[in-house]
Every structure is written in C-alpha cells, then in structure tokens.
Design brief:
Number of strands: 0
Strand content: under 5%
Mean pLDDT: 88
Shape: elongated
Largest sheet: none
Structural class: mainly alpha
Radius of gyration: 18 Å
Number of helices: 3
C-alpha cells in the first residue's frame, strides 16, 4: 500500500492480496473490539444502577458506562480514523472495566 486510507471503510486501490487480508483482518478485529467494549460499558452502567457499592463508585460507573457506550456507538457509526477507534476502545475498557471490578468487589464485601 502506498498510503493508509483515511476512511475506515475505504480500501486503497493499490492494495495487494496480503495488504488486503491484513486490512480486512484489522477491520474485523476492530469491529469486534468495539462491540466487546460496548458490552463492558453497558455492564458498567448496569452495575452502577444495581449494585451495593459506594454511591460515588455507582454514580461513576453509571456515567462512565453510559458515556462510553454512546461514544463507542458514535465511533462505530461515524467515520472515525482507526487509531482513534482503537484508542477509544482501550480507554473504555480500562475505565469501565476498572469501575466494574471495583463495584463487584464492593458488592461482594457488602454481601
């Protein structure tokens, strides 16, 4: 490939078979990662709404989960660059996954 495409849905004209397979594999992996991160964000929002954790952790989980899921939806439907989508996936997984782990730990301690 002479240059990386700017549009995540655009395959360059000069892509060879190996480049095309790598591009398609990365695209499928990115879409799967977006869906997994959205699932974790929704679990975090659900945990924020229903667990017995501290109020601040619950509120943080609810807000982070809802905003993370919304941002992932916008990134998946919009024409964001691939690097920005990967960065968003990593941030949502770290923040929402961490808050979900804290909420589950506090919920088990309260039980």
């Amino acid at each position: 490939m002479a240059r990386p495409p700017l549009d995540p849905d655009q395959i360059p004209d000069d892509a060879s078979g190996r480049d095309l397979a790598g591009y398609v594999g990365e695209d499928v992996g990115r879409q799967l990662a977006l869906r997994v991160a959205a699932f974790v964000a929704l679990l975090c929002a659900l945990g924020g709404a229903t667990t017995d954790a501290d109020d601040t952790v619950r509120a943080g989980g609810l807000v982070a989960g809802a905003l993370g899921a919304l941002a992932l939806l916008v990134a998946g439907l919009g024409r964001w660059r691939r690097a920005r989508q990967w960065l968003l996936v990593a941030v949502v997984l770290l923040v929402c996954g961490g808050l979900l782990a804290v909420m589950l730990g506090q919920h088990r301690a309260a039980a």
